[in-house]
User: What shape does this take?
Amino acid sequence: MSYKSKQPLLVLDEPTPTIFLDYDGTLHRGCALLDESGELSLDSGNSLFEFTPLLVHLLEPYPHVEIVLTTSWVDAFPLEKVISYLPLSLAKRVVGTTHDIKVPFGYLQDGSARTYRIRSYVFAHRLKNWLALDDSVYGAFHLNTTALTLEPHLVLLDTLQGINTVEARTRVSSWLAEVHNSAG
Assistant: This one.
């Protein structure tokens, strides 16, 4: 008789399409700065959320897509305030954040903490159809598991271009169409 315990097979079977969304370097070019008076600006000098209309347009035909926030803004502000910066059409899609997921120190050191949090959320919620839009999703190769290869789900963006590149828009559009067609 064997006493080896068998690990339950991880099944990613929750079909709800989910986008993991960062703000800085994704919905606008650059990183947000908070001054002494509480005013936000960008280190790039550009407008906050300049690419938000683009994401609204991409998601408009797909009302069932949910959003999980990965932005570090939730470290500085209450979640309600972070969500309030989004237009209502995006804000009502927000179902959660990766903020409370604890990260092992090694992942903080090597820069893969964001990717670790996303992977942990995916596993905890058994997400099958997801895409991460972020300028900080590093370390996917060493975070891959037998149950999940991360690279096809990660859109690593250029901080100075965000989602406003042909490649990013094509990737999001293709993913949305693929997920929509597989659900039908």
Notes: Residues 106 and 116 are 11 Å apart (CA to CA). The first helix runs from residue 52 to 59. The radius of gyration is 17 Å.
